Sequence to fold (253 residues):
Amino acid sequence: MKIISFNVNGIRAIMQKSFLKDMRELDADIICLQETKATVDQVKETVAPLKDYHVYANEAERKGYSGTAILTKHQPISVTYYIGVGKHDNEGRITCAEFEEFYLINVYVPNSGSELLRLDYRQSWDQEFLKYLKKLEESKPVVVCGDFNVAHKEIDLARPKQNYNKAAGFMQEEIDGMDAYSKAGLIDTFRVLNGDEVKYSWWSYRAGARGKNIGWRIDYFMVSESFLPKVKESFILNEIHGSDHCPVGILIK
Fold:
């Protein structure tokens, strides 16, 4: 089974680019999208040309903001859209599909913002989201994918010294959140399976950052420790454009 995660930075905008062609060529069993910036109905209408997928989407109360969706060829047992904490459940940030052997949680983690105005909110999110994942894990393993809006280690961004404790995405408080996931037994599949390979999944639109590969790895697939043996590959698809992110994925057996 191939699972892809992609922050599309607007599903309707990326549809005007090579998205359809790219997704058809990837032929993934499941496609998880973040930052759809659309209502549930708009997402379903926009991705309709991708045949053979069941589509489940979540939207933010604020129009044109956030949003997640799961497109799957395998019909899930159930789908939910909330972590159960009111202040975190109105921005469409998760779509969770239950399958026979695991829960798949597609997440768009809050960005602390250029002025760090949401850093406290982000810390609260990390704590509550981890509790939610551990609760699910009591039933079966979890596979968590999406845009976590943080580079975990220095190897995960091109300019760590210039950004540490100065920029959203590499603040110590955000790193602590990722550390907490790791300590709770959630495994960063790319790092475990690819060692010290340097690869990024997001680039600023400014100053030709993507062409120069001045990027950040902020998109992840994390899995329960018990599920790790089923993950055969974890990869980043730098060659696919259309967004300021590129897709990441795993192959599971």
